[in-house]
Amino acid sequence: MKTLTALATLAALGAASAASAEIRIGATISETGPAAFLGDPEAKTLEMMVEKLNAAGGINGEQVELVLYDDGGDPNKARTFATRLVEDDEVVAIIGGTTTGATMSIIPVAEDAEVPFISLAGAIEIIDPVKDWVFKTPHTDRMACAKIFEDMKARGITRIGMISGTDGFGASMRKQCLEIAPEAGIEVIADESYGPTDADMTPQLTNIKNRAGVQAVLNAGFGQGPSVVTRNYQQLAVGLPLYQSHGVASKGFIDLAGSGAAEGVRLPGTALLVGDLLADDDPQKPVVAAYVAEYQAEYGEAPSTFGGYAHDAFAILTDAITRAGSADPEEIRDAIETTAGLAGTTGVVTMTPEDHLGFDLSAFRMLEIRDGGWTLVD
Predict the structure, then answer these.
(1) CA angle, 229 as apex, 228 and 234 as ends, to 5°?
(2) For the chain, which has fewer Cβ within 10 Å, the N-terminal or C-terminal residue?
(3) Which family does the similarity line name (predicted)?
């Protein structure tokens, strides 16, 4: 009888230990610095979702610990923190890489350590060609170009001017747009650029304005640059349709540019920005509604597209760990690759060995800024 009691006690202790065990998930995010308007909602989202998950019992009875570092948008810091996450913190996966530059510096660390990495940045190079351990949640810059060109053609626009940031995202999107423009029936007849810290793009926009035949302008960029471009565009009274990238799909962009300056700007965005306009049978609608409500209750403000990227990354990762029934990095990686029909704020995700993004152009919504807010074009 005493032996049975002892065994029962040991079993109970073992169960308690298992329930309190921790699955460590790492993150390196640009909470501060020039990309803070992207990284801050990402970090807040991850913290909120970990707290909610643990309150509900964790993953398969195990609590989750988030090990979060602020890389300030510095690729060198991002690499250092990624190395620390795998070598010192012994995380089973990494979420982060707020910017393309930070992501590209994390990739070799994750690949060498064979730890799954879900990026929150936009450049197509992140997942094309496919890398064994790397996934991402935002639409690619190439997809953004295709969606914008599709809308331009519908409006009878075939000749455009481009102005692009020289940062990692801007340079990558410019390259992708220039590559697919001919097959989309778009001719780029003016091509200007600006630096990440430039405070006035009037000279470049004047060059585009004075170029005969330009029917619209596309700005490939993120951060504060596109807001400056939008203000200067209004000041110059260019008078042509202005398109921005999904890299500025947030209320912060509208506020920084000024709602009057941003009026009429079009860009491809996610369902998150227009959740109340989605059809009732849209599979993303309940996911968006729940996330928006939880974020507003927690932080007293609406979440951004970029917070949505973190939401989806965490959902993909926790779904994979749950299905794998394991916190082994290789088993998690294999499970991420078989994600199927997972509705997120950015799209409905179905991964394959050949596709580490998981959705197509239909996940993008073409948006226009009207009266200082987002409206659906299609």
Answers:
(1) 100
(2) N
(3) Belongs to the leucine-binding protein family.
